[in-house]
Please model this.
Amino acid sequence: MLLEAIGAAFVGFVVIMAYYGAVRPPPPKPCRSDSPTIRLRDGRRLAYKDRGVPRETANYKVIIVHGFDSSKDIYIPVSQEQIEELGISIVTFDRAGYGESDPNPNRSRKSEAFDVQELADQLNLGPKFYVLGISIGAYITWACLKYIPHRLAGAALIVPVINYWWPSFPPELCSEEFKKQPKKDQWKLRIAHYAPGFLYWWMSQKWFSSCSIMARDPVIFSRRDFEILKKMLQVPNPNENKIRQQGEYESLYRDLMVGFGKWEFNPMELKNPWPQDEGGAQIWQGYEDKLVPSQLQRFVAKKLPWIKYYEVPDGGHLIIHDPTLCNAIFRALLLKQEPTIV
Model:
């Protein structure tokens, strides 16, 4: 009996250790940066990239926040003619744990907003600048509107990812739209929200696909998305292999946990930072977006009438990568010029 008990205890110990090893994420892989970097107050490096006219002579300074599985090398097809005409300086950067930027084990919505502020300060972008957030990267734009609104000249949220657990959503509408997502993505989001400690195990298990985006499942793309993808493939990104170089947990999985976790503020209760109309915010949404429900996005826009809402009738999730729409987005953000393409 004693030997059986010892044997059972040993087997249980092995199972627990194997289970714990599968749940516990690995440490981030070290990386070196060949790009310009700044050193943040907490010692982390943040890698960035300049585009457009020199910052010192620019009329408009825009920080672009990339989305899921992307980087500072994100394809932004704003025309060179428009950049020079308006005098636009664009700064893109690798968010914490992505590309050549150090990971942040305490990454949060607030920490990323202050990363943006420190980047702006160290690059001398001035007292006010524009922030343009794309897809899940838009949670940083929401955080900037919450934590550093006094620093923003304007903000654009491009196909901003919806957190289905924001308290202002009607439960029936939210549930209806949530059920339209592929089953594997429903489980991914539930785990990211309710049990983030198990997300690494869920995302790394090999029994079945756990994420449509990472699997590049065609179901997530609209007809216009496929047309845009064909054009994007003609503009290769030589640094694409660096996006996940520190590990998928530090880049992709932390994105899911922060974006779909429990927020400490409700975006639909944010106040207008520009009561005298000295700045402005916009939401751009594709009606045929398969990842972000347009019905929920409209609800967000109605709750925040100070944010202008633009919906592209045949647009999908990749509208920022369409040259015509990209130029229209920049003119609407910087010049407050009503777009002719919606």
Notes: The first strand starts at residue 37 and ends at 39. Strands lie at 37-39, 45-52, 60-65, 88-93, 129-134, 152-158, 280-286, 307-312.
